Automatic annotation (TrEMBL):
This is Thymus-specific serine protease. Keywords: Glycoprotein, Hydrolase, Protease, Signal. SUPFAM superfamilies: alpha/beta-Hydrolases (SSF53474). It comes from Amphiprion ocellaris (Clown anemonefish). PANTHER family: PROTEASE S28 PRO-X CARBOXYPEPTIDASE-RELATED, THYMUS-SPECIFIC SERINE PROTEASE.
């Protein structure tokens, strides 16, 4: 038994996964560390890795009790058109998906669709998570589809700029529609099988949009922390991070925010004052900033540490807001008064480097651009180039700091971020407003007029600003939002834990009630059709 468990877990390790017909892939984490100045995305990936680790532990428990969840999971591929909207383009790509039949009550049980976002999917996406808990209770077939151009669902030349033209949310939604047909045919499904979609963050937006654009295919959708409104200058992100640092219910304080502001002002003053070499030494930089752009990379790196802490508060990665504010305000730790806040920020960066096993902060802007322009697929796990392309062509989402309420450095501007669109992809900065306006017109922004879509958001999560947080329902209609006052990004998507806050437990119960009601309503509608 122990040997079998170890072999099963070896299959699922995200760092050493080998799939049939594919070369072994290197560590996911490595790819995210290659992009200088992108600590926030590295933290996001570490959250994902931690979730996978917890799920492996859960799998061990199940297998030790003689359950064999893996035997019900299948990995497969579907060939999709590269361009669904061109009859002349006959090129295709292979798209990966997973199916878990363990809980399915044949033949009429529902189908729970987990939608992949800007990264690879894993077998765990149909083995663990709140949607899997509900699938077990509702007898659902579980399926997960990887997003085109991410993970292993990309052609060898897919990262070339001319080929990225086929990477868009509209193409991704049509992939889902084709996949729906493929699963329906493969499992002999009919109108009796009710589909519910699930996703978080970008894939949460896709879940909402799939229901909005293909209401005949998916009966209801759960959209967790879903930024359904595209936004060029997302300055509100950092404003909400600042508010999170003052939230006393989760360990913040006004003093904490003041110290963070003071620290960033001190670093910027030191850079402007010419003490570049000393700043680089103090913060463990891999290079001495050679120009303004390197300095911006440094300031973004430092801001990312705080931003990531707030966005993923209490997820067990890096530190919590309570711990960060402890570092910034702890009176028992004495520093030279004139440089107190500056030195406390140094300690924060040391904690980050220690926890991430990074030898230093890579602040080379030249390296950032070089890495983003690399079109080779080293491991099938790259994501930064693709995601930045989507921000340039569809979404924006640039977390700027030009607003006076931003607690970080005003050096991080819209101009410094959007110039990558032109440098890397040849996308004009002037075209961005029209591209983002199109996205909002196409999907409806944060007023999407969707029915049976449940928008779930955390009160600490900065992305709530671009989601739907207030019900716009008529009297007597079902609520379409769940707001979790003191949780962060996508917290509701994990399986139930004993350590969950009371508000998070209640939120999951609300989600379960909505899903149960949808399935009951769908069953009732089908019965009416039969009797008519």
């Amino acid at each position: 038994m122990v040997r079998n468990v170890c072999l099963a877990l070896k299959r699922l390790l995200p760092i050493f996964v080998v799939f049939p017909g594919h070369k072994p892939v290197r560590a996911i984490k490595e790819e995210f560390h290659r992009i200088a100045g992108r600590i926030l995305r590295t933290i996001k990936q570490r959250v994902r890795e931690l979730q996978l680790q917890k799920n492996k532990q859960l799998l061990l428990t199940l297998m030790a009790s003689s359950q064999q969840p893996l035997q019900h999971v299948t990995e497969a591929w579907i060939h999709q058109p590269l361009d669904h909207f061109s009859r002349q383009d006959v090129n295709t790509f292979a798209q990966r998906f997973f199916v878990n039949e363990a809980y399915w009550q044949r033949p009429d049980g529902p189908v729970f669709l987990f939608i992949g976002g800007e990264g690879p999917i894993f077998e765990f996406d149909v083995l663990a998570g709140h949607h899997v808990d509900m699938a077990e209770e509702r007898g659902a077939l579980l399926v997960a589809l990887e997003h085109r151009f991410y993970g292993d669902s990309i052609n060898p030349d897919g990262l070339k700029t001319e080929n990225l033209a086929d990477l868009s949310s509209q193409q991704a939604l049509t992939d889902l529609a084709v996949f729906h047909q493929h699963i329906s045919q493969s499992f002999n499904l009919s109108h009796r099988n009710t589909w519910i979609s699930f996703g978080g963050s970008y894939s949460g937006a896709l879940s909402a949009w799939f229901r909005g654009k293909f209401p005949n295919l998916v009966y209801g959708a759960v959209a967790s922390s879903a930024p359904v409104k595209a936004k060029l200058d997302f300055s509100a992100y950092n404003n909400i991070v600042g508010l999170g640092l003052t939230n006393e219910a989760i360990g913040g304080s006004e003093k904490c925010l003041a110290k963070v502001r003071e620290a960033f002002a001190a670093v910027e003053a030191a850079l402007v004052g010419g003490n570049v070499s000393q700043v680089a030494k103090d913060f463990g930089c891999c290079q001495i900033p050679k120009d303004h752009y390197d300095q911006v990379e440094l300031m973004q790196n430092l801001a990312d540490i705080v931003m990531g802490t707030v966005q993923y508060n209490e997820e067990g990665v890096l530190m919590s807001i309570n711990e960060l504010c402890g570092v910034m305000t702890n009176a028992s730790e004495k520093y030279e008064e004139e440089m107190e806040a500056y030195n406390r920020l140094i300690k924060l960066s040391q904690i980050y480097r220690s926890s991430s096993e990074e030898s230093g902060l890579d602040i080379s802007h030249e390296k950032t651009v070089k890495d983003l322009m690399d079109t080779s697929i080293h491991s099938g796990r790259r994501a930064e180039r693709q995601w930045i392309y989507q921000t340039c062509t569809e979404f924006g989402f640039y977390e700027t700091c030009e607003d006076a309420s931003c607690p970080f450095s005003g050096m991080v501007t819209l101009q410094t971020q959007t110039k990558l669109c032109t440098m890397v992809f040849g996308v004009s900065q002037h075209s961005l407003p029209a591209r983002i306006a199109f996205t909002n017109n196409y999907y409806g922004g944060d007023n999407p007029h969707t029915h049976r879509v449940l928008y779930v958001n955390g009160g600490v999560d900065p992305w709530k600003e671009l989601s739907v947080v207030q019900d716009r329902t008529e009297e007597g209609e079902e609520a379409q939002t769940v707001f979790i006052k003191d949780t962060a990004h996508c917290a509701d998507m994990a399986s139930r834990r004993f350590t969950d806050r009371c508000s998070l437990r209640k939120a999951r119960q609300e989600i379960e009630k909505h899903v149960a009601r949808w399935l009951e309503t769908a069953a009732g509608e089908k019965m009416k059709k039969i009797t008519v």
